Amino acid sequence: MPESLFKKRVIAVVRAIPYGRVASYGQVALLCGAPRASREVGWVLNRLEKEIEVPWWRVLNNKGEITIKGSTFSADFQRKLLQSENIVVSDDFLLSMHDYRWIPTGDEMKQFELPSDYLKTVNEKLRNY
Question: Which of 8, 19, 24, 75 has its CA 20 to 30 A from that of 85?
Fold first, then answer.
């Protein structure tokens, strides 16, 4: 997938994460159609973070841990943004993915224009979270 298309997909998925919900880097990659590109999702978001209209702070690792690195923003800043959305984040930068993970509905997933056979894989994966 060309880098510019991947970037557009990452932005679309991250913008779709509702207020008060989070997703993992791997989940964003999966919804972009590139299930093994979680690290690349982080790189895209790191380069976009100055564009505050993209809610990059809603994306964490799969354990629910803030692992922001090499950024102009700190883990504490990300925690404050999440807390402003009523997400409980501990002093050691952890939150409950079980409580806050966004699982998109079928209608929400249509906007990502994924092939129907791939959507079956996505649905199975999301059910296992």
Answer: 8
Whole-angstrom Cα distance, residue 89 to residue 96?
8
* β-pair partners for 101: 22
Q: Which two tokens stand for residue 72?
A: 């102009």
Residue position matching structure tokens 């993992």: 24
CB-based contact 91:99 (threshold 8 Å): no
Class for the domain spanning 3-127: mainly alpha
Q: Where are the alpha helices (DSSP H) in the chain?
A: 3-16, 25-32, 38-48, 75-83, 97-100, 106-110, 116-127
pLDDT band at 39 (very low <50, low <70, confident <90, very high): very high
CB contact burial 17-38 (16+ within 10 A = b; e otherwise): beeebbbbbbbbbbbbbbeebb
pLDDT in tens, 74-104: 899 999 999 999 999 999 999 999 999 999 9
